[in-house]
Structure formats: structure tokens, C-alpha cells
Backbone:
């Protein structure tokens, strides 16, 4: 502004910089500063409040579950039948936990190798132009709502992809190896959902490995494969493992895909061609059926949610610890 | 690698081959992710567009001997008529049937019956077309399998249990409501927390500890499954820890205010919409009659009257036949006459009389039969209410309080104990549910030991007072809130806020971190306080990044189904929200319900819903990208 002096003046208006020290300003100003600071601290405190609410609500409501006569903590932790509806009295968590583990294993088998290889390719091999194409595709995959993946699992993966693959290995086309609702279809869809997480976190870790390591290896006559697999991936291992753990945590907590595609029978899941109920799908089933407040089923969902919370929290914390503690610093 | 002897021993050619194989594997795997996206999108679009634009063709083989192809009036049967004595010649022409997907032509079969053949369609629709492409006939009409109107119908249509008629309007509007609530809370809170974490340097020890805990805590919060947030939202927002009663505990009543200021609380069990008129004759007195099709030029308002001239006659069946210029001819049962002049009737009843000074008056607008928790069945004349629709008031009752008369007979049914007694004094009792059975009222009080039921007759009630649920704000206003929040937009939006808050915080932190330190140092050097520095320098510089991050997290919120499913939004909601207390439908939930329905045709509708949802997400993401590119200026 040409008409104004280029330096701050003593008589600058209140919105300008006055040059006086903060201490010499009026009480009103200091009160406003204190209030703003207080608001910021309160914002920070709110996230603590959420954490406390999660822990407290899950603990209290799950504790009410164990107050029912027919339920003991030991049965819950060791039982192998889960049959809470229609007056059933079996409350062993393993059928639901095994369902979750089954889906998570299948998802990991899809997402972890595919994700790591894609990340290695994008970070070490790919031409910038290919990177610029693949990255947005992965971002789009990450942005698709999970209910859409559930739809995809139920209408495409299960009836066409899985049955198609199965019909190659079986005698006739009429034979249905896979049930319509099965863990494999749900697991594959969960894996696709986790793929962008694995790729983007691992790629960040791989790209953080300094160029000098790569140049050194190349200088010693290594091929690109040697550099990637024997130098870059080991150097970025902590980041890659953290990416894996965070992706697995997402797979464990995934709800809508398994609610749509994995079926609703809580059984000790050992057969990936059959349906199984996961912990999240059970909670959905309870709240779809208008669970009466205070009933055993209502409180059982909180116990299951508490178990789920502990599982995912452990994975997340482990992932963050791996990321922080085992990071190799190259400076 | 000199240290690795085995490796060194491998010939260079083999290592190069491994390298090439690995590159090939990489390319395959990477293109697989692109392929998956392509398959996913095309699967959704293939299925979704079929019902969004959707028509299907059925090609029917015909012969030249077919003389006509017609669709019957119910649009359920296609008739092929053959020439007399036509042999079943080889097919040399084709007819086609064009119908919406819902008509499900897969199951349609042709039955030959003499000179005719039928094609029965499983469902009827206004949009079924029949034509033929053979030599003998002209095409009736051609529609290219595309109906742009269907998109509008789908997006603006309301919910229906017919796949071809159902629409996506309420979920669309519901999602927007949820998003507004969610954004209004999550963005200020998230940005505030990010500033606290990135820019604020705490001096006092407790706040320093808080700072450190929040810093590590955010990433853990981001890893909590959304369904757990759903349960937290249910307990904290929808039920408010049960402090204000549980949502299921409420009884829904209407409160009807009459013209004299009386309030009648209860459920309308019958709404008699009849309009009642009274005609005054010179001879027989006045006769009331109820009719909806009175041929009046200008309808009367309540209490108004108009002069009537004409004639009145009594026929052998004791029915009045009134013929007037204004009404035409009306035949009325003589028993309906209210103010009948008995003398005149006996004088010479069966002789026609002229009406010279008659009047037609509008005396009543029907009745409301209301089942009340205090007076049993009450009939309210609609004439006593200014406008029945406006005077009704939704009323959610949490607690019922009765004052019973001295001398009333009461039966008390407690777990393991039933007694009948006559009250020797006036008594006030409370309970949380009421059951009505004719003139008897049962008040149910849920005590920890079990339900206690008080049963008494309506005569015993001296006064009755319902306790409404806690309400904040005016009922007509947008910000009307009741406690507990229940299955409301507010509870759903706040629950979504919990889910995306960590995402907003992390995104805002990152964009604050990317503001170069020179800006901060310059501001501080000119004498500003830390807060002035934040709000005048750092925050404005970080706004594009924060905005982008917020929009992206909102697009995550719009697709989240699990948490709001727990809050209870998966019901069949047939209205759009009108305030923060309204129930809601949401796009991802509606897609879930359609996909999970037993009727497979709804899967195609679900695919259409997904297309709309993805289109909304695309708009969000495109906005974020544009903001990122247009507003972000180089800062260093």
C-alpha cells in the first residue's frame, strides 16, 4: 500500500501490530487471550474426554453383561458356542472371534502382499507418470464407502468370481463349493478395502529411505531387484510392519462388508467356503433387530465391542510403537 | 555386495532375469489394483444404471401369420393374434416387449391358445411397450432403453416397497442433515485441537501433561472401529446415559386444543371427516344431514348460512325429498330431522310444500374420536377446533401422574401380589406406561422388582398430568431438541463427529505443520503474541489445507453406515428431517437395507443408490482438489 508507511507506527489501529510487549496491553485483551487459550485447551481436553467415554461406557455396560446370572467371565473367554438369541444361554466369544480372525486372515493374505509389492513398485520402479495414475486410483479405492465393498462382495465376488474359480477345480458347474454368504468373499473385499492403507503407508516408509543407500548398493553392482528387496525394504521394515498392523486393525474393525457378505451364523469358523459371523456383524445384527434396552443381547453387544476395542487398540498401539521405536534414522 | 558371498556367486544374467520377473510381478499386481477398481465401478454402474435408467427388452419370435400384437388394459398381458387356420410356421419375424427392470421379463413365458398366444408379464407398469419388427407390422414405438425421467424419479422419489417405484430422496436429505451437524461440531473442535497440539506451547505442568497425552492419543482414537463409536454415541447421545428415561419408554399422544382453551390428550382412533349441514324449512322445521357432495356453488364456512327456496315433499317411505335451486334434489331420511315440527307432520304430511324462507347452514365439520388416558373415549366435534390439523400437537409422554378420587376402586397388581381396595382418601400415583381398555385404565410402573399395575375406571380420575420429555427450544424451530436425543439427526451427526474428529485433527495438524516457520518468526518478531500469530498468520496460511482435509473427512462421514445403524437409522423412514429431533434415513444405510433385502430386485436399486452416493462423493473430492490447487499459494 503506497499511501501507508512501510513500518509499523505507534498509533496503529487495534488490529495492527503495535510493537508494545504483551504485558503492557489492557485487561480486556488479556482476558480475551486467556479465554481463547482456555477454548484451545478445552478442545484438546475433548479428545481425552472421548477416550474416557469409550473406556467407561464399554467397561460399565460390559460389566452389566457379566452381572446376568447365566454368564461368567470364564465362560465368555473360553466358551466355543455363542447362542444369545431366543433365550439361548451360551455366551462363549470364540465363534465370533474366530469369524473375525478368519476374515482378517483372508483380508491380510490379499492386502499385505499386494500392498507391499505395489508400494515397492511405486517407490522404486515406477515412472513418475505411472505413479501419478496409480496413486489417484488408490485414493479413489480408499474413498469408497465400505457398504459399497459389501455390495461388491455379495453381488460380484461371491456369485461370480469365487464360483467361477471354484468351477475350474470341481467336476461340474452345478456344484456350489461356496455358500452365497462366505468368509472368503467378505475377506477379499476387506482386503481390497485395506489395500490403499498398506500401499500408502508402506510407500511413505520406503521413500523415506535415503537415496545414498540405493546409490551405494547400485554402485556395488546390485540390480534394481537387489536394491529393493535386500536394501530398501529391510531399511524401511519398521514402517512396513506398522502399515501392516494398522491395516489389520482396520480389517478387524470392519463392519458393513462382513454384515452384508459374511453371513450371520455364529460358529467356530474353520471353513472359508461357509458363512461365519464376526464380532462387528453380531453387533449389527443385535441393533437391526431392535434389541430391547437392558436385555442380555443388548449388553452382550457391549461386551463384544469391548473385546473388539481391546484387539484393535492393541494393534494400533503396537503399530505406533513399532513405527517410533524401531525406526532407523538416516541423517 | 562383497559381504554376501553366495549372492556374489550368482551369475549376472540370472540376477537380471530375477529382476525382470520381479518387475513383471510388480506390474501385474499394480495393474490388479487398477483392475479391481475398474471391475468394482463397472459392476456397480452396470447394475445401477439398469435400474436408474433401466429398461429391458424381450425379443419374442413370431411368424407372418400374426395379425396383431396388443397389450391388455392392465398392462400385464401381451396378446398375439394369429390369422385363422395359420399353421405353426417357422419363426420369421420378431416382436419385442420393452419393460422396466421391475417387470422381470426373465420369468415371462408365451402360451399358445388356438388363434391367440399370450405373454403374461409378472408385474404391470405404465412404461411397458409392445411392438414388432417383422414385415407385416409397423413399429408401435421405439424407446432406446433409456429413460432420463427415471433418474429424477429416483432422486426425488420417496421410499416404497416396490423396487421400481422406490426413491432416494429421504436418505439423500437425511445424509445432508447429518453432515451439517457433523461438520458444525467436528471442524471447529478438530481445528482447535490441532492448534492446541501444533502451536500452543503450554507453560504449566498439568497442561503440558495433557498436551503430551492428547498428542499420542489422537492416533489411537483414529484406530477405533467406527462401530465402537456407534455404541458410544448410542449411550452418550441417543440415550444420554438413561438420565432422561430411555427412548422406548415414551408413549406417543396427541394434544388437541379446543376453541375454549381445553386440552385433550390422547390418540385419535377415528377421524370422521363428515361435513354436516342443516336446512331449515318453513313447514317441517330443521333437518340436519351429512354429505360430502353437496352441489353448492360456494362452500360455506362454519356457522354461515345461505337462503334456500324450493319445495319439500315426504314420500311413502318417510323420506324427505327436497328440491331447491341451490341444492338440486336431496333425499333425506325423516329420522334425521332434529327440530321436526310434529304438528305440521301430522297435518297433511304427503303433500308437497314450497320452501320460501328456508336457510342452509353449515353446522359441523365432523368429529374426532380420541382415546384418552384419563377420560376413556372422548368425541370432539371438529367445530370446536379451529383447524383440526393445526391444533394437533405431537406429545411424547415419559411419566403419567394420576390423582384418584376419594372412594375410587383400584386394583393393584404387583409381582406375586394382587389386591383390590377402595381409596379412603384422595391419592396421587405415578407410572411410566398406560394401557387403555374401554373405560378401564391400567397404569404400569416399572419398579426394580417388576412391573406394578394399577387398574381403575375413568370415573376414578380426578386429574391427570403427563410429564413430557425434556424439550429445549420451540417445537417449530430448527433447533428443537429433546432429551434423550433418541434416533435423531443430532444424535446421528454427533456420533459421526466422533468417528471423523481424529481424521480432521490429523489433517489440520499436517497443514499447520506445513506452514513455514519464517512466517511465525516474522510475526513474533513484530511483537504479536502467540495467539495473534496463530490467528493472523499461521491459521490463514493453513486454511486451504485444513479445508481440503475437512472436506475429505466429511466425504468419509457421508459414507459411514455402521455408527448410525447403531443409533437406529435403518428403519423405514418416509419423511425428510425438519429439525434436529427428527428421525432420519441416510444414504449408506438405505443402500445396506436394499442390498440385504430378500427381494433381489432391490440389489439393482441399491446399485443405483451407490451411483448417487459415489456422485456426491465425487463432488466432495473434486471440490477438495480444486481448493487444494486454487488456494494453496507457495509460502516459502
Residues:
Amino acid at each position: 500500500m503506497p499511501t501507508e508507511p512501510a513500518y509499523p507506527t505507534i498509533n496503529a489501529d487495534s488490529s495492527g501490530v503495535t510493537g508494545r510487549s504483551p504485558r503492557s496491553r489492557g485487561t480486556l485483551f488479556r482476558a480475551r487471550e486467556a479465554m481463547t487459550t482456555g477454548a484451545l485447551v478445552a478442545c484438546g481436553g475433548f479428545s481425552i474426554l472421548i477416550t474416557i467415554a469409550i473406556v467407561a461406557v464399554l467397561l460399565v455396560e460390559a460389566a452389566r453383561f457379566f452381572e446376568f446370572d447365566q454368564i461368567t467371565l470364564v465362560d465368555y473367554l473360553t466358551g466355543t458356542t455363542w447362542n444369545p438369541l431366543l433365550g439361548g444361554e451360551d455366551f462363549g466369544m470364540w465363534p465370533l472371534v474366530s469369524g473375525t480372525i478368519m476374515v482378517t486372515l483372508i483380508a491380510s493374505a490379499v492386502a499385505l502382499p499386494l500392498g507391499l509389492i505395489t508400494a515397492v513398485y511405486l517407490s522404486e520402479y515406477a515412472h513418475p507418470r505411472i505413479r501419478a495414475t496409480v496413486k489417484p486410483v488408490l485414493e479413489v479405492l480408499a474413498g469408497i464407502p465400505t457398504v459399497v465393498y459389501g455390495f461388491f462382495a455379495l453381488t460380484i465376488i461371491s456369485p461370480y468370481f469365487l464360483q467361477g474359480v471354484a468351477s475350474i477345480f470341481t467336476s461340474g458347474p452345478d456344484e456350489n463349493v461356496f455358500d452365497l454368504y462366505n468368509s472368503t468373499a467378505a475377506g477379499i473385499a476387506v482386503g481390497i478395502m485395506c489395500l490403499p492403507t498398506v500401499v500408502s503407508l508402506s510407500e511413505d516408509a520406503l521413500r523415506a529411505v535415503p537415496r545414498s543407500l540405493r546409490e551405494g548398493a547400485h554402485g556395488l553392482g546390485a540390480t534394481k531387484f537387489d536394491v529393493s528387496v535386500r536394501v530398501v525394504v529391510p531399511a524401511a521394515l519398521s514402517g512396513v510392519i506398522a502399515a501392516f498392523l494398522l491395516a489389520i486393525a482396520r480389517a478387524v474393525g470392519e463392519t458393513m462388508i462382513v454384515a452384508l457378505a459374511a453371513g450371520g451364523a455364529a460358529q467356530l469358523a474353520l471353513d472359508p467356503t461357509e458363512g461365519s459371523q464376526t464380532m462387528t456383524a453380531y453387533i449389527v445384527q443385535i441393533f437391526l433387530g431392535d434389541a430391547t434396552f437392558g436385555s442380555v443381547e443388548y449388553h452382550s453387544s457391549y461386551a463384544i465391542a469391548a473385546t473388539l476395542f481391546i484387539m484393535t487398540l492393541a494393534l494400533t498401539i503396537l503399530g505406533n510403537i513399532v513405527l517410533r521405536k524401531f525406526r532407523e534414522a538416516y541423517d | 555386495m562383497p559381504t554376501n558371498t553366495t549372492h556374489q556367486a550368482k551369475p549376472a544374467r540370472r540376477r537380471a532375469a530375477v529382476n525382470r520377473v520381479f518387475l513383471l510381478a510388480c506390474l501385474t499386481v499394480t495393474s490388479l489394483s487398477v483392475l479391481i477398481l475398474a471391475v468394482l465401478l463397472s459392476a456397480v454402474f452396470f447394475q445401477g444404471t439398469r435400474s436408474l435408467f433401466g429398461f429391458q427388452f424381450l425379443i419374442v419370435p413370431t411368424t407372418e401369420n400374426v395379425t396383431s400384437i396388443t397389450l391388455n388394459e392392465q398392462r400385464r398381458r401381451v396378446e398375439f393374434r394369429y390369422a385363422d387356420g395359420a399353421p405353426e410356421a417357422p419363426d420369421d419375424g420378431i416382436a419385442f416387449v420393452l419393460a422396466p427392470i421391475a417387470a422381470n421379463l426373465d420369468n415371462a413365458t408365451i402360451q399358445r391358445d388356438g388363434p391367440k398366444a399370450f405373454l403374461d408379464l409378472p408385474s404391470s407398469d405404465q412404461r411397458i411397450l409392445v411392438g414388432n419388427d417383422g414385415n407385416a407390422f409397423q413399429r408401435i414405438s421405439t424407446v432406446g432403453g433409456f429413460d432420463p425421467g427415471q433418474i429424477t424419479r429416483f432422486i426425488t422419489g420417496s421410499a416404497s416397497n416396490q423396487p421400481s417405484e422406490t426413491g432416494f430422496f429421504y436418505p439423500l436429505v437425511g445424509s445432508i442433515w447429518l453432515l451439517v451437524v457433523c461438520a458444525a461440531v467436528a471442524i471447529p473442535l478438530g481445528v482447535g485441537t490441532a492448534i492446541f497440539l501444533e502451536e500452543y506451547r503450554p507453560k504449566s505442568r498439568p497442561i503440558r501433561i495433557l498436551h503430551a497425552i492428547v498428542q499420542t492419543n489422537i492416533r489411537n482414537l483414529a484406530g477405533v472401529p467406527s462401530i465402537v463409536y456407534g455404541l458410544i454415541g448410542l449411550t452418550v447421545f441417543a440415550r444420554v446415559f438413561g438420565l432422561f428415561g430411555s427412548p422406548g419408554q415414551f408413549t406417543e399422544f396427541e394434544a388437541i386444543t379446543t376453541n375454549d382453551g381445553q386440552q385433550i390428550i390422547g390418540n385419535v382412533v377415528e377421524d370422521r371427516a363428515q361435513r354436516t349441514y342443516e336446512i331449515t324449512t318453513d313447514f317441517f322445521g330443521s333437518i340436519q344431514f351429512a354429505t360430502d357432495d353437496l352441489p353448492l356453488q360456494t362452500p360455506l364456512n362454519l356457522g354461515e348460512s345461505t337462503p334456500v327456496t324450493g319445495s319439500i315433499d315426504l314420500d311413502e317411505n318417510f323420506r324427505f325429498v327436497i328440491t331447491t335451486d341451490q341444492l338440486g334434489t336431496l333425499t333425506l331420511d325423516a329420522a334425521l330431522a332434529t327440530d321436526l315440527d310434529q304438528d305440521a307432520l301430522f297435518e297433511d304430511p304427503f303433500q308437497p310444500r314450497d320452501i320460501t324462507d328456508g336457510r342452509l347452514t353449515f353446522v359441523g365439520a365432523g368429529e374426532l374420536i380420541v382415546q384418552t388416558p384419563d377420560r376413556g373415549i372422548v368425541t370432539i366435534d371438529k367445530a370446536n377446533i379451529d383447524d383440526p390439523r393445526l391444533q394437533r400437537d405431537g406429545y411424547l409422554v415419559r411419566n403419567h401422574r394420576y390423582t384418584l378420587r376419594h372412594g375410587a376402586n383400584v386394583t393393584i397388581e404387583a409381582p406375586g401380589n394382587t389386591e383390590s381396595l377402595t381409596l379412603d382418601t384422595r391419592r396421587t400415583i405415578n407410572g411410566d406406561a398406560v394401557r387403555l381398555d374401554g373405560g378401564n385404565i391400567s397404569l404400569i410402573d416399572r419398579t426394580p422388582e417388576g412391573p406394578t399395575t394399577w387398574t381403575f375406571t375413568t370415573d376414578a380420575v380426578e386429574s391427570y398430568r403427563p410429564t413430557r420429555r425434556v424439550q429445549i427450544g420451540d417445537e417449530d424451530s430448527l433447533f428443537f431438541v429433546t432429551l434423550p436425543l433418541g434416533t435423531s439427526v443430532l444424535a446421528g451427526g454427533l456420533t459421526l463427529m466422533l468417528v471423523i474428529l481424529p481424521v480432521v485433527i490429523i489433517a489440520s495438524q499436517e497443514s499447520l505443520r506445513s506452514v513455514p516457520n519464517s512466517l511465525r518468526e516474522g510475526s513474533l518478531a513484530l511483537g504479536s503474541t502467540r495467539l495473534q500469530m496463530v490467528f493472523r498468520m499461521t491459521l490463514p496460511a493453513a486454511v486451504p489445507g485444513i479445508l481440503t482435509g475437512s472436506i475429505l473427512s466429511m466425504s468419509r462421514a457421508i459414507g459411514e453406515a455402521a455408527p448410525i445403524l447403531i443409533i437406529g437409522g435403518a428403519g423405514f423412514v418416509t419423511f425428510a428431517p425438519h429439525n434436529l429431533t427428527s428421525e432420519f434415513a441416510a444414504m449408506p444405510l438405505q443402500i445396506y437395507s436394499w442390498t440385504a433385502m430378500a427381494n433381489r430386485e432391490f440389489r439393482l436399486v441399491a446399485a443405483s443408490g451407490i451411483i448417487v452416493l459415489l456422485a456426491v462423493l465425487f463432488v466432495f473430492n473434486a471440490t477438495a482438489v480444486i481448493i487444494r490447487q486454487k488456494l494453496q499459494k507457495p509460502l516459502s
Residues 1-5, 133-146 of chain B have pLDDT under 50 and may be disordered. Chain B touches chain A through 97 residues (CB under 8 Å).
